[in-house]
Amino acid sequence: MDGHTLNTFGAIFMAFSWGIVIALNIYSFYKILYNNKKKQED
Amino acid sequence: MVKREQWGSRIGLILAVAGNAIGLGNFLRFPVQAADNGGGAFMIPYMISLILLGIPLLWIEWSLGRFGSKKGHGTAVAVFDYLWKNPVAKYVGLLGVLIPLAVVVYYTYIESWTLLYSFFSLLGKLPSTPVTENVSDYLQPFSQFLVEKTGQNASGLFLTPALETYIFFVITLLINLYILYRGVSAGIEKVAKYAMPLIFIMAIILMIRVFTLSSPDGRNFLDGLGFLWNPDFSALTDPKVWLAAAGQVFFTLSVGFGAILTYASYIKPKDDIALNGLAGASVNEFAEVILGGSIAIVASVIFFGIPATAMIASNGAFNLGFMALPAIFANIPYGEFFSFLWFLLLFFAGVTSSIALSQPAIAFLEDELGFSRQKAVFSLGIFLFIAAHIPIFIKGALDEIDFWVGTFGLVVFALLEAVVFFWIYNSKEAWKELTRDNDIKIPNFFYYIMKYVAPGLLIVILISWSIEMLPSQLTKTDPGVWIGRIFIILLTVIGFILIKKAWRNRNGRSYT
């Protein structure tokens, strides 16, 4: 088998990159919803 | 002044902007670049480039667009004229119309291949051969299929694409024009609201299928992910890796086209740009880092192994998408359906980008020449139909136009945007314009990044690309290459004449 399975460093880099991207999405869309709600209340 | 169109909703705008950025590059270029440039370690320069180059340039382009919205203009032609009170400014700003327009001439054609492949997958008409030991032999029918459909096997100056390729191009062009004809809110925004969720659903289905694949000799998705993510820290000392990361961030966010500027010009003059820009970039990064990194290259490693995947990838990201993936799907259960999904995903990603690239030309015709939307779309349609015959039928023209406009031109225009806004206009005023009326505060250190770091990095990219690519590019003298060059020159001359006419007729605004 010419494999090259995901190692610990690879998993850390992947988890970190995915984490940043997911956090960025959650932050921006949470802010948008929060601002929309605030504007509706005003 | 004619009332300009506006976006119907904020989410529609964000999806349209993300749709502009999400294209074939997210699913094909990113995984190849990452695997070639240090694997997981590539993400260090990638994330740094995102902060120092991608996001700042994105916010600059959004801000220029919102500035245009205030003045009732949607292209860099008028925006540069307002900011840089010099008669030459509007001609420099023409790059923000010409670049996306020239790109869309060949992009629509490539986009039509994805529709053709999708349709042929559904009919079971893509090649289907048993797996052979030698990967090159196995990929041969798939390579042959692409060559036959695009007519690249012809000798001489002219390509001889198949009739169905031409028909699918016409269908793709008509789909694009219909969306543009419907307008910003009823056309572009509506399509984005349907296409974007569909892109994500299709990508997740494909990702799940790829993660459940395994090879007879025991390879599974962990090998694919290992190929992409296991870091090679020595790559970090190589300047080429840092340039590749900066280039990837630049391309993926679609900055330097002028399309974001035009999209942003349809917001209200006091709307947010900082959070909208960040949200659009976040959606794009999700499609790239998570979905794009988990389909094509992972499937290729599982099916072909690492040396063969490296060989396929070294021949270009295109080979991965149009040869390796259909070859994999040809040998898995329900492969025709997954092949259909894969190419439909690429088609949707392509359409949301090509309509964005067409919009600056529409905005130019409407805002500066006073055309109605119908007249603008009709004129654009005629132009695109005629101009597309160059990349469709002339050998070497597509690559030449892509080099000057789709690679070099983007960096030049992005640099000009930063320089005109932060150096020629007034950096304090530019910062004030950029940071007003936003839903989130742009940190102050971005002022220095936008004024010094981002333009500096663009100059470094430009110099290194010039040293690396220009000598070989300039020595090309094939007739097809010259036709591509003449096309770009002709387009520029027509653009200059139209600007002159617009300003003379006072449809456009004089800087005085």
How would you describe what is shown here?
The complex is a heterodimer of chains A (42) and B (512). Chain A has 42 residues and is mainly alpha-helical. Chain A contains one helix and no strands. Chain B is an all-alpha fold and 512 residues long. Chain B contains 24 helices and no strands. The radius of gyration of chain B is 22 Å and the shape is globular. The chains are: A mainly alpha (42), B mainly alpha (512). At the A-B interface, helix 1 of A face helix 1, helix 11 and helix 14 of B.
Through-space gap between termini of chain A: 64 Å
Determine the strand fraction of chain B and express it as a percent band.
Answer: under 5%
Structural class of chain B: mainly alpha
3D shape of chain B: globular
Based on CA atoms alone, the radius of gyration of chain B comes out at: 22 Å
Largest interface: A-B, 28 and 37 residues
Count of alpha/pi helices of chain A: 1
Descriptors for this entry?
heterodimer; A: 42 residues; 1 helix; rod-shaped; B: 512 residues; 24 helices; 75% helix
SSE map:
The complex is a heterodimer of chains A (42) and B (512).
Chain A: H1 8-41
Chain B: H1 10-21, H2 24-27, H3 29-36, H4 43-71, H5 76-83, H6 89-93, H7 95-122, H8 135-150, H9 163-182, H10 184-211, H11 221-229, H12 239-252, H13 259-264, H14 274-291, H15 296-304, H16 306-314, H17 317-329, H18 335-369, H19 373-387, H20 389-393, H21 397-425, H22 427-435, H23 445-474, H24 479-504
